[in-house]
Amino acid sequence: MRLVFAAICIISTCCAASLHAQTVYHEMYRPQVHFSPREKWTNDPNGMVYYNGVYHLFFQYYPDSTVWGPMHWGHATSKDLVHWQQQPVALFPDSLGYIFSGSAVVDKNNTSGFGKNGQPPLVAIFTHHDPNGEKAGRNNFQNQSLAYSVDNGKTWTKYAGNPVLKNPGITDFRDPKVSWYEPEKKWIMTLATKDRITFYSSPDLKGWTKESEFGKELGAHGGVWECPDLFTLEDNGKKVWVLIVNLNPGGPNGGSATQYFMGDFNGNKFTPADSATRWLDYGPDEYAGITWSNTGNRKLFLGWMSNWQYANVVPTTTWRNAMTVPRELTIKQAGTSRYIASTPVAELNAIRLNPVAWQNIRVQNTFEVGTKASKIVLPGRLDLNLEKPNDFAVILANDAGEELEIGYDSKQQQYYIDRSRSGKVDFQKDFAGRAVAPRLRKTGSMDLKLVIDVSSVELFADDGITVMTSIFFPSKPFDHIRLRSPGGTTFKKILYTDYMGIW
Ligand code: FRU
């Protein structure tokens, strides 16, 4: 009897274990503190808007496959920017085409007239991409359209007068980001138009007038400009206008990446303060990042955590791709320049647990950050503080001999992430390798925050002035974190906390 019981137990534990491995949101490589669709393909975040206590995250979605295809807007909601609930698909392709990227606004004054019973509508402004027009070799197959919701974003109705902004003959004419320009009480659409940004304005979201163009001669142009954003940040009591422009390819480490400009916008024209090219994230795996609308003085940013170089072939099973953690943007000084700094939103601190801390540790060769028998179970967060940085690295490792190395090269004054020995790397030729980023704040002590999920790391260095995001696919989970410094480095503070998974 006992034997039988034991046997059943063994069988059921083993079944439970293998069942668990296949449970949705717990598959191999499934991010545990990042949003990813329950199944199938995603790319850009879309229509990010905060309304009535809910953060809406729409996303480029193909519900029929794990590779890119006819685009829909998937939908997820969150009350805390940490836990996400996937909702029914918000927008389906129609006779005008696929639903490409775009934004959403709260039309507080009901300028569009879509509101009902005194309730303001949520209005989504997106690109209709007509695949037939593209195939036929026409140049006007991308046009801007509207959809609205009068039930807090639950269901969406497409505007009967779509498209509202017709293509004048520009093959890449897409990704509208709309915001309210209070001084002139009008909407501004920031649109990616091939190798520049074109600004349009509208009193009612339905009729649009061209205001100006920006950027043909400025910034990085290794590829097409996509997914822009325009907003203000406070800088010592002054308002600074920020223009985000995503670029594919031509990123600092190859493929797709997010650049930005700082300057002024007067309702008609964006004037940059200088001609520098700045990158919001130097890593290979943050793209199409933009900010939530209607969040007051807080500016919250989130990007797609992949790269067009290999997004279609990464070795996940039932879903493909995820988003970065939401990040709060501020302006900070480094040397004589101002930069945008990113920090993982404070809301994520609510899921940190089991802190282990060390102080004034001299690492000569290696130091185990592990908690239980030198082991860790990802996800987790590592904070490091150094007085004088010498060369050092944070190594994620498993007992299959695979390693992901995140480090600092003092001679080059560069941070780097090397994933050449991180496990599965040969699914695409550009995946393996070492990505680098300049240390922009070169003086003072160095601080690093690392958000480490089971298949991604986000590095926020020097108050978040230099940021790098990278994904990885070890053959077995990384369960060691080691600090390594052959020449010796003193860490003033080391703090590791587990993250409680969000699914
Ligand atoms: C950026 C992008 C957008 C486009 C969407 C299509 O990743 O190419 O420009 O709207 O993806 O899925």
UniProtKB/TrEMBL annotation:
One example GO MF annotation: sucrose alpha-glucosidase activity
Name used for this protein in its record: Glycosyl hydrolase family 32
CDD domains recorded: GH32_Inu-like
A GO BP entry: sucrose catabolic process
UniProt-listed Pfam families: Glyco_hydro_32C, Glyco_hydro_32N
Signal sequence annotation: 1-21
Residue span(s) of domain Glycosyl hydrolase family 32 C-terminal: 349-494
PANTHER family hit by this protein: EXOINULINASE INUD (AFU_ORTHOLOGUE AFUA_5G00480)
Keywords on record: Glycosidase, Hydrolase, Signal
Glycosyl hydrolase family 32 N-terminal domain: residues covered: 34-335
Entry GO CC: cytoplasm
Organism: Niastella vici
Membrane-spanning segments: none
Family matches, as Gene3D superfamilies: Exo-inulinase, domain 1, Glycosyl hydrolase domain, family 43
Sequence similarity: Belongs to the glycosyl hydrolase 32 family.
Lineage, broadest ranks: Bacteria, Pseudomonadati, Bacteroidota, Chitinophagia, Chitinophagales
